[in-house]
Design brief:
Two copies of one chain form a homodimer. Chain A is mainly beta and 186 residues long. Chain A contains three helices and 15 strands. In chain A, the strands form four sheets. In chain A, strands 4-3-7-10-11-6-5 form a seven-stranded antiparallel β-sheet. A three-stranded antiparallel β-sheet of chain A has the order 2-14-15, with no helix packed on it. Chain A is globular.
């Protein structure tokens, strides 16, 4: 295998596609994002990177709350639309029906099968982006997408984001914490 | 759609599967991880959550450098193995051939098609986990996995992680920054 250097770039292989929800000036707003992951097990935390100039950032700073909403692949048009237009130019409060959970100020998109309701724990200034780390206070889920009390990926049918393209989840390669048992020293 | 609450849990729909590389006591060590994403565009940054008790955490704290190595689906056994055993119990320095880039102390796994070489920018104590935010100083790529100077996901064939299972990337759903143009107000 021959390796070459490509320079510094903000690369990650695959990422989740989601909608960051925040109330801005009292109105729900949703922004498409993919730069998100889990940040901590206990307490449960997630994080998402948001460009400082984004309208959504104002809402998160204002309320210290936000949501991460997981759309299904069949919601790709509405989802991508939220990334094409800014809430500063267009009222995005009607694209999804919003409801509120424990925090009262983090709008949750009703149509998305999973909503992660977060209280802002810390925002880290990284340069062009703020990395918002949020404590998960509640997971709201479509009953049709839950198996044994947990969100079920095969029912959610989430959108994988990679190199400017939305994909669905492919076939199972192996089981985690299991596949490695087949390892034999070279 | 009927919604129920599932309580607070560290949930994310889909995540990348990768190996966090760090030198611990002068030896390369690789730890399987999925809680990672891009943290910033400019400068380019990535982040990864690592349990405080992990052997890898010692190496990152020691050198202030680390790497994120993206394996292919055909490396799932070696990859998962690195998550089953701790470097404190087993020397994992021979599972992959290591090489070094600009930083000299962040081991890069030769067999992985993409290596993201990082200088520690900040570590955020979230509770059980430290969220390591690293500035990307270089991307090393297998020449066979590059198209037009960028890593090519279709050639890398990365592993998607979701609910304790490894998946491959499925079929294209739509194009980002494009699908939303089909949106019409309801």
């Amino acid at each position: 295998m021959q390796k070459i250097t490509l320079g510094a770039m903000p690369f990650m292989s695959v990422m989740p596609t989601l909608l960051v929800g925040a109330n801005v000036k009292g109105k729900p707003n949703y922004m498409t994002a993919a730069w998100a992951t889990v940040a901590c097990m206990a307490p449960a935390m997630v994080c998402v990177a948001v460009n400082k100039m984004r309208y959504t950032a104002k809402g998160i700073e204002e309320n210290k709350t936000f949501s991460l909403n997981i759309p299904s692949a069949n919601q790709v048009v509405e989802t991508d639309h939220c990334g094409l237009v800014s809430g500063s130019q267009e009222d995005k409060s009607e694209i999804f029906r919003s409801f509120y959970g424990k925090l009262k100020t983090a709008p949750l998109a009703e149509e998305c099968p999973i909503n992660i309701e977060c209280r802002l724990f810390k925002s880290v200034d990284c340069g062009s982006h703020l990395l918002y780390i949020g404590e998960v206070v509640e997971i709201h889920a479509d009953t049709a997408c839950v198996t044994d009390g947990k969100p079920d990926i095969t029912k959610i049918n989430p959108i994988v984001y990679a190199q400017l393209t939305y994909f669905d989840v492919g076939k199972q390669v192996d089981r985690a914490f299991s596949a490695g048992k087949k390892y034999t020293k070279k």
